[in-house]
Amino acid sequence: MRQYFLTTIILIVFSCNQVEINPEYRTFNIAEQFLNYRILYPKNFDNSKIYPLTLFLHGISERGDDNNLQLKYVDKVFLNQNNYNNYESIVIFPQAPIEDNWSSRLLTKNKIRQVFPENENPTKSLQLVIKLMDSLVNEDFIDNKRVYLSGLSNGAMGSFELLKNRPNMFASAVLICGGGNPEWAKYFAKTTPIWVAHGSDDDVVHPELSINMVKAIIKHGGSPKLTLYENVNHESWFNVFNDPNYLKWMFSFTKN
Questions:
Q1: CATH number for the domain including 211?
Q2: Residue 59 CB: number of other CB atoms within 10 A?
Q3: What are 175-222's pLDDT values in tens digits?
Q4: How many C-beta atoms surround the C-beta of residue 230 within 10 A?
Q5: Number of C-beta neighbours around residue 151 at 10 A
Q6: Residue 156 lies in a domain
Q7: How would you classify residue 37: left for phi > 0, otherwise alpha for psi between -120 and 50, otherwise beta?
Q8: Domain assignment present for 205
Q9: How far apart (Å, rounded) are the C-alpha atoms in residues 108 and 231?
């Protein structure tokens, strides 16, 4: 009986120490357009203090209107209790509707399969993300020297495009199995530290797309980090998310 009693006490204390991490449901409305997103506040959020701001853009399969599917792969990263405690940040998870996406890329039938027009306007969804971020970085509780960007697949493509349009916004970016137009690199190569990751066997988004962006960043004076995962296909985000250096690297930068 005594052993059972002690075990019960331990379980109660343990459960009381656990905090449910559940990003709030939000909708950003502007000019009769709207964008669903989830926002994660740090523990004991206090709007009289300042916090880093992180944006994560999901992949093509997480589009929809449920304002939930965009957390499919990142729940074990940003909603992980240790990460939540150790990497304090306000985190934004927008969701693109099924009829749109984050990238202005054109699909082709060649080996690469995606082409990125140099001067195409951002998609409606990415334009809304840009406006949302513009509004958030002006909030008094946001440290605009510590704004971070990450995305996977279509979200990484949109992230490259976002960097082109807001080259001075982000302190760092981690972009996974994406791609973009190498000409965009001249806008952000010297302003934003970038970690590009890709699976070497990716047959959905060819790794050459990431490699070309890395070459362009170097050409224009940047010093990117590149990780190619051997014998990994498209889902290289699992490799990144399981790497303890993912958040550690991203949050290590502060803009001057």
A1: 3.40.50.1820
A2: 27
A3: 999 999 999 999 999 999 999 999 999 999 999 999 999 999 999 999
A4: 7
A5: 26
A6: yes
A7: beta
A8: yes
A9: 25
Q: Per residue in 34-86, pLDDT tens?
A: 999 999 999 999 999 999 999 999 999 999 999 999 999 998 899 999 999 99
pTM, entire model: 0.91
Structural domain contains residue 255? no
Question: Quick one: what percent of the chain has pLDDT higher than 70?
Answer: 93
Residue 77 domain-assigned? yes
CB count in 10 Å sphere of residue 49:
12
Q: Which two tokens stand for residue 29?
A: 């409305």
Containing domain of residue 89, as a range? 24-250
